[in-house]
Inverse folding.
């Protein structure tokens, strides 16, 4: 399924890695990121706070007994990863990482190792593949889809345009998962600083990276039919914070939420 690694074009996972201060990126990724930062310097703040949101939400779910996680749009490994957070609480937790960049998958297989009690797996697919992801052998081997699964969509939906109907994709995935499953989303928004984020989005699109910013109501639509956990869809800084932040909602510019399937 893999396409040859194209280092001449920026890729969202590698741009994100650069913004996080990682080292797994190429000149095209760095150039795109730097142009984005010139348009909106807060573009470097959002990824770091998104990782903090990941830690809080995965830990909360694991403490509630959720022991299966499907992380679509994984990105390059940046510790702590989903399985590290989940298995610290539940050593037998199982996690499948899904991405379509061959560099991401190569690093994942090399670096994302499980506890002896748990399992991790890696599947090559795009979010747009929808329920077909659940049929992949790598997913079926690791996850028991007759038991609740946490579907994790951290900072990935803003790379899916409306023309690809991400709402239908998310609804189909949640529809195929059993009762008690959870949906976790974080999503960039321009609601707090429309001009700066519009410039950033324009630069990303100019580099060939689909970027669709959505407001709170747009993000809340992904949770239609689910029971939203408190405090609902909110700026991620306000989603059950474990420390006082010096950042503002405008600087972080991400909405997040967790929903549970009845």
């Amino acid at each position: 399924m893999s396409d040859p690694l194209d280092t001449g074009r920026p890729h969202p996972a590698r741009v994100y890695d650069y913004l996080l201060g990682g080292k797994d990126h190429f000149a095209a990724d760095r150039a795109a990121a730097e142009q984005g930062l010139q348009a909106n310097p807060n573009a470097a703040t959002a990824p770091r706070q998104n990782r903090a949101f990941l830690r809080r939400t995965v830990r909360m779910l694991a403490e509630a007994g959720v022991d299966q996680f499907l992380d679509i749009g994984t990105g390059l490994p940046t510790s702590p990863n989903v399985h590290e957070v989940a298995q610290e609480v539940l050593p037998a937790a199982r996690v499948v990482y899904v991405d379509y960049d061959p560099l991401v998958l190569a690093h994942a297989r090399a670096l994302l190792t499980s506890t002896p009690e748990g399992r991790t797996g890696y599947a090559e697919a795009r979010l747009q593949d929808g329920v077909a992801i659940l049929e992949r052998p790598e997913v079926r081997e690791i996850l028991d889809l007759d038991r609740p699964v946490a579907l994790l969509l951290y900072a990935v939906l803003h790379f899916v345009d409306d023309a690809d109907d991400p709402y239908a994709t998310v609804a189909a995935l949640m529809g195929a998962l059993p009762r008690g499953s959870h949906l976790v989303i974080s999503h960039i928004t321009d609601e707090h600083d429309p001009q700066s984020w519009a410039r950033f989005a324009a630069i990303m699109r100019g580099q060939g990276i689909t970027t669709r910013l959505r407001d709170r109501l747009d993000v809340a639509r992904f949770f239609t039919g689910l029971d939203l956990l408190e405090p609902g869809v909110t700026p991620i800084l306000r989603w059950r914070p474990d420390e006082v932040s010096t950042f503002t909602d405008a600087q972080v510019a991400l909405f997040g939420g967790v929903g549970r399937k009845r």
Notes: The chain has ten helices and eight strands.
